[in-house]
Amino acid sequence: MTFRTRRWVRPEDLNPNGTLFGGSLLKWIDEEAAIYAILQLGNDHVVTKYMSEINFVASARQGDLVEMGLRAVHFGRTSLTMRAEVRNMITKDKILTIDRIVFVNVGDDGRPAPHGYSEITLTRDRIPARLSR
Ligand SMILES: CC(C)(COP(=O)(O)OP(=O)(O)OC[C@H]1O[C@@H](n2cnc3c(N)ncnc32)[C@H](O)[C@@H]1OP(=O)(O)O)[C@@H](O)C(=O)NCCC(=O)NCCS
Q: Is the pLDDT of residue 132 over 90?
């Protein structure tokens, strides 16, 4: 599991109880997973297909720092399945786990397209050509 992105819990991320709003967390994770999928599949046309049970293990408070981790667990023909974990850098608590987030690689027609990969890359060798300048 590689933890890359960190977020600072700000007032706009809180629920009425004064703790981190689950919707904010899911938005961050979905974007993190999209970027992960783009860089693994070499295509910026990827879409969220499925998320398994989301386990909100602990909360976070305003001012806490949280970090998000993802790992590819399965390369399908057109899909990529990832596992996600978010932890609180201050309390060291695990905040959230998602066992399976599935993204699908799509073509220009929006239909699933084979991505041709079967293993994780740890370098930046799959940056989509259309994003390159
Ligand atoms: C993503 C989308 C193009 C897939 O279309 P589809 O007809 O379901 O495609 P397929 O049945 O060929 O499945 C494509 C891949 O997704 C996987 N898949 C489909 N349904 C799945 C499910 N419920 N859970 C996990 N994986 C699933 C398939 O196993 C396949 O993977 P593989 O090729 O690696 O074996 C279509 O469902 C779609 O456009 N969904 C909306 C996506 C979106 O807008 N997301 C963001 C907003 S929430």
A: no
Q: How far is the CA of 104 from the centre of ligand 1 (A)?
A: 6
Share of the chain above pLDDT 70, in %: 100
CATH class for the region spanning 2-117? alpha beta
* Eight-class DSSP state of 130: G
Distance 100 CA to ligand 1 centre (A): 13
Helix (H) or strand (E) holding 26: helix 22-41
Domain boundaries, the chain: 2-117
- Per-residue model confidence as pLDDT tens digits over 97-124: 999 999 999 999 999 999 999 999 999 9
- Whether residue 83 contacts residue 73, with contact meaning beta carbons closer than 8 Å, is answered with yes
